[in-house]
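A reminder from the course coordinator: this example appears on the midterm review sheet, so study it carefully.

Given structure:
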């Protein structure tokens, strides 16, 4: 990607369960690995794991340390490089504040959802927006997706990934990879 102004956030709170209640979800370490690998592949500047649960933060830090400081990083330097992108924070607001301090630029927040949203921006529109100097953080939900309140508090909502047969329940790591690939492709088509 032409500008190094894109961040990702994997939200574990506030997310919804299948009944629509707001909950905090548990980490899935494979999500951390696969999203970090997609992030580095597509030139993402940083990847935030957002959870207020201290035991989950400890788990995240243990996984990161194993692959960046421990034997995992020695045995697999590519994984080490990817997991070095991960930052663990308690809230999405903490992530936005860190990004703002890092780049000294406005931070644009983008929610993703598997549901249709009335004012959703397309991938092509998002790729075009990324050409600005602002920082952009795309939030992805775990469990059954981010709470409606969280989504509505973001600056933009991105169109959902659509398949060909109406089935729409991708793993979050698959959705991240698809969206990053499409953004990268559209940025190149814009002449980046």
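Designed residues:
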């Amino acid at each position: 990607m032409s500008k190094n102004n894109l961040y990702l956030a994997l939200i574990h709170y506030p997310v919804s369960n299948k009944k629509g209640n707001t909950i905090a979800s548990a980490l899935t370490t494979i999500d951390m690995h696969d999203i970090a690998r997609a992030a580095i592949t597509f030139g993402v500047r940083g990847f935030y794991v957002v959870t207020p649960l201290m035991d989950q933060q400890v788990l995240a830090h243990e996984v990161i340390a194993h692959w960046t400081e421990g034997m995992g990083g020695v045995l697999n330097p590519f994984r080490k490089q990817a997991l070095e992108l991960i930052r663990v924070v308690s809230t999405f607001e903490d992530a936005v504040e860190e990004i703002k301090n890092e780049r000294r630029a406005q931070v644009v927040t983008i929610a993703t959802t598997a549901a249709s949203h009335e004012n959703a921006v397309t991938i092509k529109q998002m790729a075009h927006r990324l050409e600005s100097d602002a920082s952009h953080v795309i939030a992805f939900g775990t469990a059954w997706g981010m709470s409606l309140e969280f989504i509505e508090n973001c600056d933009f909502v991105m169109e959902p990934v659509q398949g060909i047969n109406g089935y729409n329940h991708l793993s979050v790591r698959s959705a991240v990879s698809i969206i990053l690939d499409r953004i990268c492709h559209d940025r190149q088509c814009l002449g980046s």
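Helices lie at 29-41, 54-68, 71-75, 77-83, 92-103, 123-129, 148-153, 172-189. The longest strand covers residues 135-141.
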